[in-house]
Design brief:
Elements (H helix, E strand, L loop, with lengths): L1 E2 L19 E9 L1 H10 L5 E8 L15 E8 L1 H7 L3 H11 L9 E4 L7 H10 L4 H6 L3 E7 L9 E7 L12 E6 L8 E2 L5 E4 L7 H4 L1 E2 L5 E4 L6
Parallel strand pairs: 1-2, 2-3, 3-4, 9-11, 10-12
Antiparallel strand pairs: 5-7, 6-7, 6-8
Length: 232
């Protein structure tokens, strides 16, 4: 089911259980925790869900398992505390998957966020990665993550951390070029990162002198924007 709503509309509360509804894509209306729980309760055979999630309550408790779902895509907008609690740490992801998605075949995610401080970069990335290095991640599923820490460049004036699962399976790549720190939970990790689904790329002037960005490989680029480092 693909639905479009007016900008000021809200997703309605469902009152009828639908066992036939398996695919839901909602592009122009956000869900909060209440409406998301309501949807799950009334679609017991839901397989595919793509939504925007917007909730600043600071709570994230689902009321029932999502046993049938095989593909879940959520664009998140919420409080910084909720973002840090959920998207940055593998412990919470592990809890959600064990309780609500007991047999996932594939898990892919990426998140970009501004760190609360630019001090102790190594320590901050280590804390994130330690949460993705339990038996659940490394041995049960062999799911690995990688993180890039970007400092201000010509495109942005704040630090940014980009955390994503491996192999890189997304169609976009940050247009940040000053990457100063990389960490990975993959024991076979080498310096190279292949992004074969990315077809459009912006390559800023600072990328020409940044060795980390130079080791990212884009074999299928169709559109490339360059900012050349000319000296006055």
């Amino acid at each position: 089911m693909k639905s479009r709503f007016p900008v000021d509309a809200y997703f309605p509360i469902l009152n009828i259980i639908s066992k036939l509804l398996r695919n839901v894509v909602i592009k122009h209306i956000p869900f909060n925790l209440s409406t998301l729980n309501n949807l799950f309760q009334h679609t017991p055979n839901l397989n595919y869900l793509s939504i925007n999630f917007k909730d600043y309550s600071g709570q994230l408790e689902l009321t029932s398992p999502i046993l049938s779902i095989t593909h879940l895509k959520i664009t998140f907008q919420g409080s910084q505390d909720m973002l840090e609690h959920l998207l940055q740490h593998g412990f919470q992801w592990e809890k959600i998957i064990r309780e609500y998605l007991p047999e996932p075949k594939l898990f892919q995610f990426q998140t970009k966020f501004q760190p609360s401080t630019d001090e102790g970069k190594e320590i901050q990335l280590r804390q994130i990665h330690n949460s993705f290095q339990t038996n659940f991640w490394i041995y049960e599923h062999r799911w690995f993550v990688r993180s890039h820490w970007y400092i201000p460049d010509e495109n942005s004036n704040f630090d940014c951390i980009h955390v994503f699962t491996l192999p890189y399976s997304f169609v976009d790549f940050p247009d940040r070029t000053n990457c100063i720190l990389v960490k990975s939970t993959d024991p076979s990790y080498d310096e190279y990162l292949t992004c074969d689904r990315v077809t459009s790329l912006y390559y800023g002037s600072s990328a020409f002198t940044n060795w980390i960005v130079s080791y990212v490989y884009f074999p299928n680029i169709q559109h490339l924007s360059l900012s050349l480092p000319f000296n006055d």
